Amino acid sequence: MSFDTIVFESADGIATIRLNRPDSLNSFTAGMHAELRAAMDIVESDASVRCLVITGTGRGFCAGQDLNERDPAATQKMDLGESLDNNYNPLIRRFKNLPMPVVAAVNGVAAGAGASLALACDLVLAARSARFIQAFCKIGLIPDAGGTWALPRLVGHARAMGLALLGDTVTAEQAEKYGMIWRCVDDEALAGETAALSRHLAAAPTHGLGLIKKAINASLGNDLDTQLDLERDLQRKAGFSEDFDEGVAAFQQKRAAVFKGR
Ligand code: T3D
């Protein structure tokens, strides 16, 4: 399937979505959202996909909403709640609920909802020259696309508040120090590190990784009792998987496991 605003590739268990509007730092348009929906339909329906990677073309990862799609002089004001309901929120939910790891390879600036998209991913690798900007406060908006949920959980209340209220630039190195992202790597190493990480994940016990993702995400809103019950339920599912049998057999036979992801 070919797209205009994204590049979609799928091979060897790894699906890659590359945001592809480099002239505007891969900012989101309505058309891009439609194409992202179509790409996610493919990812979710293809049982061979075991890891999703999202990245950007050029010097940006994503600069959030394309502001040229918004008309400050319009007499009929646009309902941004509808924009979130129709476009951003479903995308973030799909990333969070995808039963496999989602890796963000942040190749450049991630601003506004572009930063939120990166932070909604399970593992974030960022090039050393990349930066994260909560740009919303500069145009009278609030962090969206899950930003107000992710930020305090990742960096704590004080930093989340500072970043959201001031919109300061966070370098990739700072982001790693803050615990906002998994790792900052040299610019020229980003592609290789992303490939190695996604290959590793796509060969791992995907069913189990999907359950880990579910448990860790649910823990953020659960008390210990609820979480213990959830762990029991998810471990029950994990214990019935083919990958668990393979993992234990490989351990006992002192060989490398070959997981099928189910
Ligand atoms: O509306 C809704 O549906 C609600 C949801 C909102 C979600 C949001 O994401 S709101 C936040 C929107 N994003 C921003 O406010 C960020 C705007 N961009 C910037 O502040 C800066 O561009 C950056 C800090 C990201 C990067 O700065 P810099 O100096 O590296 O690059 P630049 O020169 O500003 O940008 C390069 C080009 O990309 C430039 O175009 P030009 O002049 O070369 O033709 C610039 O206009 C364009 N660009 C960057 N961001 C956007 C954009 N074009 C449209 N929309 C953008 N968001």
What can you tell me about this protein's structure?
This protein is of the alpha/beta class and 262 residues long. It folds into 2 domains: 6-202, 2-enoyl-CoA Hydratase, Chain A, domain 1; 205-252, Lyase 2-enoyl-coa Hydratase, Chain  A, domain 2, CATH 1.10.12. It has 10 helices and 10 strands. The protein has helices at 30-45, 80-97, 113-119, 147-155, 157-166, 172-178, 190-202, 206-219, 224-239, 242-252; strands at residues 6-11, 14-19, 51-56, 60-62, 102-106, 109-111, 123-127, 131-133, 169-171, 183-185. The strands form 2 sheets. It has a 6-stranded mixed β-sheet with strand order 1-2-3-5-7-10, sandwiched between helices. A hairpin with a 2-residue loop joins strand 1 (6-11) and strand 2 (14-19). Helix 8 packs antiparallel against helix 9 (224-239). The longest helix is centred in the middle third of the chain and has 18 residues, at 80-97. The radius of gyration is 19 Å and the shape is globular. The model has no long low-confidence stretch (mean pLDDT 97). It binds ligand T3D. Ligand T3D is lined by residues 24-25, 27, 63-68, 70, 80, 83, 109, 111-113, 133, 135-136, 139, 141, 144.
Quick structural summary:
This protein is an alpha/beta fold and 262 residues long. It has 10 helices and 10 strands. The two termini are 27 Å apart.
